[in-house]
Amino acid sequence: MNIQQTRYNWLTEASLFAAIFAAVVIIGMSAHVRLQSTAPAAKLESNAPADPSGFYCNLKALTLPERARLYQLTEKLKAARIESVEFLDGYAFRLQSEQVSIGELAEYVSSERKCCPFFDFAIELQRDGGPLWLKLRGKDGVKEFMRHEFGIQ
Questions:
Q1: What are the distances in angstroms from CA 148 to CA 42, 68, 70, 102, 141?
Q2: Number of compact structural domains in the chain
Q3: More confident residue, 24 or 88
Q4: What residue numbers bound the domain in which 70 lies?
């Protein structure tokens, strides 16, 4: 890929990002608001610390561009998911390593833990080029939150 193609790709992605940025923010915020009415265990607070009785989404933990990037990464992970394994306290997702990089997965975890500190995260890379897994676990209510967030039936 030459410099012109790289610049064009970057400009195209930047234009696309700018065009959908407002929609992403609105969708992300409305999903968290809908969650409040469908998941009584989830408390949506702007800056509340973790509480042993439940879990909180810190909506002010990320800037709007960071939230848009997190949404973008979440959608990429959902598209790369080829298997979901349910645990008593969460889920494991097997991902297509060709569709999502380890760096993107680490970026997702780093961002997600800022606004959702109630998750336990694990990234697992199996030997000999085996599967890539993301494991998310937590307290009561986390699984319902994850089903909503990842579209799990």
A1: 12, 18, 16, 24, 11
A2: 1
A3: 88
A4: 3-150
